[in-house]
Amino acid sequence: MKALSQKRRHPLAALALLVLGLMLTGGLYAVVTTVNEAKADTTTFTAQQVDEGEKLFVANCATCHGIGASGTDAGPSLAGVGAAAVDFQVGTGRMPLQMQGPQALQKPKQFTTDQTREMAAYVATLGDGPALPEEQSLDGGGNATVGGELFRVNCAMCHNAAAAGGALTRGKFAPSLAGVANNHIYEAMVTGPQNMPVFNDANITPDGKRDIITFLNTIENQPAPGGAKLGSLGPVSEGLFLWTAVLGVIIGFTIWLTSRTS
Amino acid sequence: MGAWLTMSAATETPFEPSTSTGRITNFVDERVGGSGMLREFGRKVFPDHWSFMFGEVALYSLVILILSGTFLTFFFDPSMAETHYNGPYVPLKGMEMSVAYDSSLRISFEVRGGLFMRQVHHWSALLFVAAVSVHMLRVFFTGAFRKPRELNWVVGGVLLILSMAAGFTGYSLPDDLLSGNGLRIIDGVVKSIPVVGTYISFFLFGGEFPGTAIIGRLYMMHIMLVPALILLMVAIHLFMVVIHKHTQYPGPGRNDRNVVGYPLGPVYAAKAGGFFFIVFGIIAFISALFQINPIWNYGPYDPSPVSAGTQPDWYIGWVDGALRLMPGWLFNIPMEWEIPFPWGVNTLSFNVLAPALIPAGIVFTLLFAYPWIERWVTRDNREHHVLDRPRNAPTRTAIGVAGVIFYCVMWAAASSDLIATHFQVSLNDVTYWLRALFFVGPIVGFIVTKRVALALQRKDREIALHGRETGRIVRLPHGEFQEIHAQLDDYKRYKLVGYESPLPEEGIPNKNGIVTKQENLRSKLSSFFFEDRVAPAAPSELEAGHHHEAIESSEDNKAITH
User: Fold this and answer.
1) Largest CB tally within 10 Å, which of A154, B52, B199, B341?
2) H helices within A129-234, ranges in order?
3) Which residue of A has its CA nearest to B420?
4) DSSP B483
């Protein structure tokens, strides 16, 4: 301690302090960014899968995304989108795209799970990107309360508090999340398909994502305690129901009551 | 009103009832004069028509609201103190929330029958405001607001506003995310009022939004002030109905000096009493089977999240829609102005202030003033107890439809996002179309309605004069083909000819012989109202029409052909 206090007025002390500060900042930055870093997880794919995936890609996707997935005017480059993006887009039937429009629509999927995996394997080799989610994040065994709060803060403004979906500008929309598979929910969060923002692991941790999936599973599976849900769309469907069905029945009764028997 | 008291006192025949029930009844009757009241009210005559029953629906919904609302007050705690949820609803377990939301959840999931009662309360609230609105539309389109019922029309308008206030204060009480978003909009509107807005907002919320006071304050308004005012207005409303007697649709034997219908007792009272249970039954049925306001879906209020598809209940929707339609920028002109004052720069958020106040201002001003506007234009100071069929007052009907369209465009705008997602159209296009319709819709609606009304009147006139087409074609001896027309019976014909069709009036000079500017305006409005008219078939025309079919042109008829 004495040595340190003696040397604190040394001409090089300021320089040493600066170096120390820079290293600390840089080190912290490196730690923080590695949390954010896209990690390609090619280890789970075999070379044969990659080869098969490339064949499928050339036959089905290269028209728009270009040979080697380098992108054309009709479709973006896929370098760095990761296996998760392929699994989401192809696995939910959004890709191959039926036609250009405000956003890709969900439709019956065109490829088997194995074929989707093979294409994902191929695209994952093109550059680092989000990998397929770990199984333990998808088990729906997280905390639904925390997930609910995360969902309301991060997702509800587009997807609606009850996950019934909502409108975006110019024909784009956030779809309803009912019936969406857990792995697709997870992949959507890490890849940000269409107009969705990316929720990376620094934004919402894998545990947080697991909680959100738990919350969505819970509200999807719970019975409606109040009766028919009327689409979970809130006051609009309630008002519409009242003005059509309820008022219609009441008018029927008023006509019956005031009709003469003669 | 005191007649029965003096009457029962005057007839001093000692009456000794033989049964105990009779003795009890007589005891009460001698002290409160119940039989006289029963005689007075039991003989009140009500005309029978289904469209006269919406007021009753509103009244019965109000009774159901009070009953179910009382049940809810037993369990609701309007406190904004923080607590942690510990009930059976899993996705909120351990969540931090206000006591108000916690007790709303307890009513929904733990109190026996609580969710059912909550749904009864909410559904009957929606039905109450809807019934009030439909009732007012019926009164408007049939001209029932005319003398002597102008003041009762105003009381009805006040009831509409009060029912909206009751609805909104109640909607905010559970302190869930949806209702909190609604309160945030109210806060924004209040703050957009120049100079005093911020002060009012701080006064209302007891500090910065959301504060810790608002739920308790709204609760007091919701269960005390607003219902008390509603009950007072309902009492005045019904009292005036008794004074004025009920209106009736035109028909043989009906005029402005009589009422044709059933007496209240016993048939009508039985029907009305039964109808209460029908309304109650319908509400109970839908409350048991259809979910309304699932507050557990929305989570506790927190100022940061806003859910997609956030809408108010239907009766506030039109104001929300106006806010959605208002552009923030009009071409290159911002609608939010910063005005430099000597004490600093003040902001005028016209983009919030205008849509929140102007459309509602227009609707309610016209609604309250309309009986007097029409009275001034027509100089009609007679009492009207016979209603107009809407087609027989084409301009009034057209004005009403224009108003309904104006309202409905804003109403639709409140659900613009759901229109976009469910009909797969662009949200922007929905907004642009509705903005155009906001201005064009009422005008088109006015023109189309007026033409339809006039056309229906012409059809009525045609049928009155020439009878109904039978579809039977006969060939006359000289070769001409003719369709046989069957004449209507007198009762049916009365409906087609028994109406008034005023003529447009020139301005009347005052005592100095000058037609004032005001009179000129009145004359212009008079021709706006009555220029296009179809005169009811006169008895002489009917006579002529029966004898030979080819009557086409008379003086009155010319007015309708252009």
Assistant:
1) B52
2) 144-154, 156-159, 182-191, 206-221
3) A167
4) E
Q: What is the pLDDT of residue B545?
A: 67
Q: What domain range is B81 assigned to?
A: 45-251+260-388
Closest CA to B325 of B208, B410, B240: B410
Distance of CA A93 to the CA centre of its chain: 15
Does B495 fall in a domain? no
Distance of CA A22 to the CA centre of its chain: 36
Give this complex's ipTM.
0.88
pLDDT tens-digit readout, A228-242:
888 888 899 999 999
- Cβ contact, residue pair A158, B312, below 8 Å: no
Residue B225 domain flag: yes
CA–CA gap between residue A178 and residue B279 (Å, rounded): 35
pLDDT in tens, B319-365: 999 999 999 888 888 888 888 888 888 888 999 999 999 999 999 99
Question: CA B479 to CA A55: how far, in whole Å?
Answer: 86
Contact between chains at A168 and B427 (C-beta distance less than 8 A): yes
Chain B residues near residue A242 by CB distance under 8 angstroms: 123, 126-127, 130, 314
Interacting residues of A52 by C-beta distance below 8 A, sequence separation 6+? A115, A118, A122
Count structural domains, chain B. Answer: 2
Measure CA B162 to chain center. 12
Strands A173-174 and B96-98 turn out to be unpaired
Chosen domain end from B340, B361, B388 = B388
Of the pLDDT bands very low, low, confident and very high (cuts 50, 70, 90), residue A42 is very low
Residues B191 and B269 in one domain: yes
What pLDDT is attached to residue B11? 55
Helix H segments across B379-489? 394-414, 416-422, 427-466
Which of B476, B454, B316 is closest to B392 using CA atoms? Answer: B454
Show the DSSP H helices in B245-311 as ranges: 269-289, 295-298
What is the Cα–Cα distance from A199 to A144, expressed in whole angstroms?
18
Q: Which residues of B touch A103 (CB under 8 A)?
A: none
The verdict on domain A135-221 having CATH code 3.40.50.720 is: no
The verdict on B207 and B108 lying in the same domain is yes
User: Quick check: helix, strand or coil at residue A133?
Assistant: coil
Q: Tell me: do B24 and B110 sit in the same domain.
A: no
Structure tokens at B529: 């109202």
**B53 and B37 housed in the same domain:** no
Q: Decide if B314 and A242 are in contact by the 8 Å CB cutoff.
A: yes
Lowest mean pLDDT segment, chosen from A42-51, A137-146, B293-302, B362-371: A42-51
Across chain B, which has 562 residues, the per-10-residue mean pLDDT values are 48 77 88 83 84 94 96 95 92 93 95 95 96 96 93 96 95 92 92 90 92 93 96 95 89 85 82 93 96 92 87 93 92 87 86 92 95 92 92 94 96 93 92 96 97 94 87 91 86 86 88 89 92 86 64 42 38
Q: Max CA-CA distance within chain A?
A: 117
Instruction: Name the residue with tokens 């009986």.
Output: B371
Cβ separation of A258 and B126 shorter than 8 Å? no
CATH H superfamily, domain A42-124: Cytochrome c-like domain (1.10.760.10)
Same domain, B366 and B320: yes
The answer to whether the Cβ–Cβ distance between B311 and A235 falls below 8 Å is: yes
Query: Which residues fall within 8 angstroms of residue A12, CB to CB, at 6 or more apart?
Result: none
Topology alike, domains A42-124 and A135-221: yes
**What's the burial of B419, exposed, middle or buried (CB within 10 Å: 0-12/13-18/19+)?**
buried
**B151 and B208 share one domain:** yes
